[in-house]
Design goal:
Helix content: 25-40%
Bound molecules: nicotinamide-adenine-dinucleotide
Number of helices: 16
CATH topology of the largest domain: Aldehyde Dehydrogenase, Chain A, domain 1
Number of strands: 23
Strand order of the largest sheet: 15-16-17-14-13-19-20
Mean pLDDT: 97
Low-confidence stretches: none
Structural class: alpha/beta
CATH superfamily of the largest domain: Aldehyde Dehydrogenase, Chain A, domain 1
Strand content: 15-25%
C-alpha cells in the first residue's frame, strides 16, 4: 500500500503517533494509499525547521540565486510531468485533458512567473530637506515575512499550492504546507523535487492532516508562523482569520464564490454557450471561479437554455484517461452528498430541472465513484438556496433579465464577490458593467483567461488580498522604510 509521509526538514517523516488516514480515488472510491497524519510534534518540527532555514543557507542566498533554484523546480516538475499527472489524476479523478493542460503546467509556471517578476521589482524612494538644512533620503526595502503557513484546498491541488509557494519562496520566506486531506499526493511529490534541485533543508515542509484539532489548526495557531495564506471555504477562512488574530499575523484569503455569467442578446452566441458550458462544468464544477448563476437577456433566453442543455448532455462522465471522457467525479462521497442535497433542495423549492438532477448511470466498476450529473435549473426566485449558496458542483440556475440595472442588482446582491463574466458585443456596456460589479475578477467574452502578472482575489466574502505578479509580494514581504540623514 502506498504511503504519503510528511516532509520535514528535507526528510520524509512518518506520523509519530502512528495515525494514518485513507486517500481515496473518487473515480471508484478505491484506496490509493495511507496518509501519515501530522500531530502537534510534527507541526512543531516543521515550523522549527522552516524558522531555522531562514537563518541558514537559504537566508543567505541572493534573489538571483533563489530564482535559479525556483527555475530548477519548474524544470524538474516538467521533467517529472507524468508522475505529477498520475498523482493528481488519482487523487481527483479529473480528466487527463484537463490535468495535463491546466493543473500540472500551471504548477510549474507558478514558479517561473514569480522569478521573472521579482528580478525586476523595485521599491520607492523619496528625498527631502530636513528642518536643520540637511538632506534625507528614505527608501523601501522588502524583507521576507518569515515562516508562511500555506493551507490548500483539493480542487486544483498542485496549481493552487504552487500559486502561493512560488511567490513565498521567491521573496525568501520558508513554508509549511498543509495540503487538503483529500489530495495529499502532489504536495508530497514536490518534496522529492525540492531535494533533487538542492533546495536547502527546511525551506519547504509538508504536514498532512485535517483542519480542527489536526495539522491545519496546529499550524495556523502556531506562534512561530508569521503569515497565513489560505484557499478554501469562507467558513474555514473565518476560523483561520480568528486563529491569525492571536499574534496579529497577516492573512491572505482566497475563499468561496457564487459567480454569475451575464449573457446579453447581442453576444456572439456560440462563444457564450461554449464558454458558459466550460465555466459551469469544467472540473465537475469544482473551480472557485466557476459559474453557478447564469442571467440571460430575455430575447435569447429559451434558445440559450436549449443550447446549454444540449452541451451539458454531451458531458460524458468516465475514466480520466478515456479520450471521450468530458467530466470526472466530484472529489469525495461527502462532497457528492452535499451537491446532491442541493439537487434535492432545488426540486423542493420548485425548480424546473432542465437536465440532470441526480447520479449518472455508470458501469459496475465505477458505481462506487462520486459521480453527479451536470445539472441546469430554471424558474427559481433569487432567494432560492441554489441561487444564493455556493454548491461547488457541475450545476447552474438560469434566469431571464430585461434590463442592465436589473441584472446588475441581482448579481451584486450575493454575499460573495469573486468573479463574473459578461457576454456582449457592446464594449461600452461591458466596461460600464465591469466597473460596477462587486467582484475581484471580471471577464468579458471569456472565462478563466489568466495572465499570471495580474491581481487575483475576491471581494466581499470571497477573500482578502490579491495575489499574482507584484501583488503577491505585498503579502509575502514586509516593506521596511529606511531613512538616511546626510
Ligand atoms: P475547506 O475550507 O474545507 O478546506 C481547505 C483547507 O483548509 C483544507 O486543507 C482543510 O484541511 C483546511 N482546514 C479546514 N478547517 C481548518 C481549520 N479550522 N484550520 C486550519 N485549516 C483548516 O475547502 P475545500 O473544500 O478544500 O475547497 C473548496 C472551497 O475552496 C470552495 O469554497 C471554493 O470556492 C474555495 N476555493 C477558492 C478559491 C479562490 O481562489 N478564491 C480557489 C479554490 C477553491
Amino acid at each position: 500500500m502506498k504511503e504519503f509521509l510528511n516532509f520535514i526538514n528535507g526528510e520524509f517523516v512518518k506520523s509519530a503517533s502512528g495515525k494514518t488516514f485513507e486517500d481515496r480515488n473518487p473515480v471508484d472510491h478505491s484506496v490509493i494509499g495511507l496518509v501519515h497524519e501530522a500531530g502537534k510534534p510534527e507541526v512543531d518540527a516543521a515550523v522549527a525547521a522552516a524558522k531555522a532555514a531562514l537563518k541558514g543557507d537559504w537566508g543567505r542566498l541572493s534573489v538571483v540565486e533563489r530564482c535559479k533554484l525556483l527555475d530548477a523546480l519548474a524544470l524538474e516538475i516538467n521533467r517529472r510531468f507524468d508522475d505529477f499527472l498520475q498523482a493528481e489524476i488519482a487523487d481527483t479523478g479529473k480528466p487527463h485533458a484537463l490535468a495535463s493542460h491546466v493543473d500540472i503546467p500551471r504548477g510549474a509556471a507558478n514558479f517561473q512567473v514569480f522569478t521573472d517578476t521579482i528580478k525586476s521589482m523595485s521599491t520607492e524612494s523619496f528625498q527631502m530637506r530636513t528642518p536643520d538644512g540637511k538632506n534625507a533620503l528614505s527608501y523601501g526595502v522588502r524583507v521576507p515575512r518569515g515562516v508562511i503557513a500555506v493551507i490548500c484546498p483539493w480542487n486544483l491541488p498542485l496549481l493552487l499550492m504552487t500559486w502561493k509557494v512560488g511567490p513565498a519562496l521567491a521573496c525568501g520566506n520558508t513554508v509549511v504546507v498543509k495540503p487538503s486531506e483529500e489530495t495529499p499526493a502532489t504536495a508530497t511529490l514536490l518534496g522529492e523535487v525540492m531535494n533533487t534541485v538542492g533546495m536547502p533543508k527546511g525551506v519547504y515542509n509538508v504536514v498532512h492532516g485535517f483542519g480542527p484539532n489536526s495539522a491545519g489548526e496546529f499550524l495556523t495557531t502556531h506562534p512561530d508562523v508569521n503569515g497565513i495564506t489560505f484557499t478554501g471555504e469562507t467558513r474555514t477562512g473565518t476560523a483561520i482569520m480568528k486563529a491569525a488574530a492571536d499574534g496579529i499575523r497577516p492573512v491572505s484569503l482566497e475563499l468561496g464564490g457564487k459567480n454569475a455569467a451575464i449573457v446579453f442578446a447581442d453576444c456572439d452566441f456560440q462563444v457564450a454557450v461554449d464558454t458558459v458550458t466550460r465555466s459551469c462544468f469544467e472540473n465537475a464544477g469544482q473551480v472557485c471561479l466557476g459559474t453557478e448563476r447564469v442571467y440571460v437577456e430575455r430575447p435569447i433566453f429559451d434558445k440559450f437554455v436549449a443550447a446549454l442543455k444540449a452541451k451539458a448532455e454531451t458531458m460524458k462522465p468516465g475514466l480520466p484517461f478515456d479520450k471521450d471522457t468530458k467530466i470526472g467525479p466530484v472529489i469525495s462521497k461527502e462532497h457528492q452528498e452535499k451537491v446532491l442535497s442541493y439537487y434535492d433542495k432545488a426540486r423542493e423549492e420548485g425548480a424546473t430541472v432542465v437536465t440532470g438532477g441526480g447520479v449518472p448511470a455508470m458501469p459496475d466498476a465505477l458505481k462506487d465513484g462520486c459521480w453527479v450529473q451536470p445539472t441546469i435549473w430554471t424558474g427559481l426566485p433569487e432567494t432560492a438556496a441554489v441561487v444564493t449558496e455556493e454548491i461547488f458542483g457541475p450545476c447552474c440556475h438560469i434566469s431571464p433579465f430585461d434590463a442592465e440595472d436589473e441584472v446588475l442588482a441581482k448579481v451584486n446582491a450575493n454575499r460573495y464577490g469573486l468573479a463574473t463574466s459578461i457576454y456582449t458585443q457592446d464594449i461600452g456596456r461591458a466596461n460600464r458593467m465591469a466597473q460596477q460589479i462587486e467582484v475581484g475578477l471580471c471577464w468579458i467574452n471569456s472565462w478563466f483567461l489568466r495572465d499570471l502578472r495580474t491581481p487575483f482575489g475576491g471581494s466581499k466574502q470571497s477573500g482578502i488580498g490579491r495575489e499574482g505578479g507584484v501583488h503577491s509580494f505585498e503579502f509575502y514581504t514586509e516593506l521596511r522604510n529606511v531613512m538616511v540623514k546626510f
